[in-house]
Write a structure and sequence with these properties.
The structure holds two protein chains of two kinds. By secondary structure, chain A is mainly α. Chain A is 70% helix and 0% strand. Chain A contains five helices and no strands. Chain A has helices at residues 2-14, 18-29, 31-41, 48-63, 66-83. In chain A, helix 4 runs antiparallel to helix 5 (66-83). The radius of gyration of chain A is 17 Å and the shape is extended. By secondary structure, chain B is mostly helical. In chain B, strand 2 (73-76) and strand 3 (81-85) form a beta hairpin. The longest helix of chain B is centred in the middle third of the chain and has 20 residues, at 92-111. Chain B is globular and about 40 Å long. In chain B, strands 1-3-2 form a three-stranded mixed beta sheet. The chains are: A mainly alpha, B mainly alpha. At the A-B interface, helix 3 of A face helix 4, helix 5, helix 7 and helix 8 of B.
């Protein structure tokens, strides 16, 4: 089960181009996004993560560095984990409510 | 308005049989249909509901009804319906916000075992709805409500509106509501699912 999930994710991520990460970085450093981050969190975004991703993507595509690929995949999975609260205050349902 | 979730009897007159105004009802329906078709936030929430397994059916799950004076909408957990107050929703923008707000409550109902009498669960869903529905967007706070603030003002706004929403629904003191909101604020503010981050 776990290996299947990793393979699926890897397939998805290997198909992404470095241009996509560059677009993400450009969006991150844009004035609109920076202002939005300041309004939400009280500090500006450093954009270190997107920049690292570009570097790792290029290293992997050109030099075929396995380390860079691993770092890239790790940062993508970490982002997915960060979206959800690690310690939610409620328990999640295993299936949608039957009376919907 | 911020009284968006209600169990109180005076809020939802429609549920107790008040006579609807046909003109307002038609206007509400028209705005509702426009929001369903065109508004990006509403459509994103509808898509998220579908992926979560609770597809929203326009006829079954969303209704326009007359309500009491201060409520603009609510999620009725007993009947699993989003109620929109045709007498209080004054514009398409208001309809979009209210609908997104209620759909976030519906989404939380769909994905989690929400206990509606648990003050912390209530506070959590209100914080998320205030933060993610667009009520606290910069231009609304600054130009419509004249509450100036830049640094992390979104959090201030979400907290205030969550407290006010809880006071609409539960008969408790402001101190208790504030305590409940503060106790879960950090966790619930970070939980932006189904959005990837707080939407602009």
């Amino acid at each position: 089960m776990d290996t299947e999930n990793t393979t699926d994710d890897t397939e998805k991520y290997t198909k992404l181009r470095c241009l996509d990460y560059m677009a993400e970085y450009r969006h991150c450093i844009s004035a609109f996004h920076q202002f939005h981050q300041y309004y939400i969190h009280g500090k500006f975004a450093t954009c270190k993560e997107p920049k690292e991703r570009i570097k790792n993507c290029i290293k992997w595509k050109t030099f075929r560095s396995e380390e860079a690929k691993k770092r890239l995949l790790d940062s993508l999975t970490q982002e997915q984990k960060d979206m959800n609260t690690p310690d939610p205050i409620w328990t999640f349902r295993s299936s949608p409510p039957s009376d919907w | 308005n911020y009284c968006s979730m209600a169990n109180r009897d005076d809020a939802f007159l429609g549920r107790t049989g008040a006579k609807p105004d046909p003109r307002l009802h038609k206007l509400c329906q028209r705005r509702l249909e426009y929001a369903f078709k065109r508004n990006p936030y509403v459509r994103y929430m509808l898509d998220a509901m579908k992926k979560a397994g609770c597809e929203v059916n326009l006829e079954k799950h969303v209704v326009c009804e007359p309500c009491g004076p201060t409520v603009s909408g609510g999620f009725d957990q007993e009947h699993r319906q989003v109620v929109l107050c045709e007498n209080n929703i004054y514009s398409q923008g208001c309809m979009n916000d209210t609908l997104t707000h209620e759909l976030i409550h519906a989404y939380d109902y769909c994905r989690a075992n929400m206990e509606w009498n648990n003050l912390e669960h209530l506070a959590c869903t209100e914080i998320r709805a205030a933060s993610l529905s667009g009520e606290c967007f910069f231009w609304k706070e600054t130009f419509a409500r004249l509450k100036f603030g830049w640094k992390a003002h979104h959090q201030v706004c979400a907290r205030e509106r969550a407290i006010k929403s809880i006071l609409c629904v539960k008969d408790i003191t402001e101190a208790e509501a504030t305590r409940a909101v503060d106790s879960v604020f950090v966790k619930c503010f970070q939980d932006t699912v189904p959005f990837e981050r707080v939407p602009p």
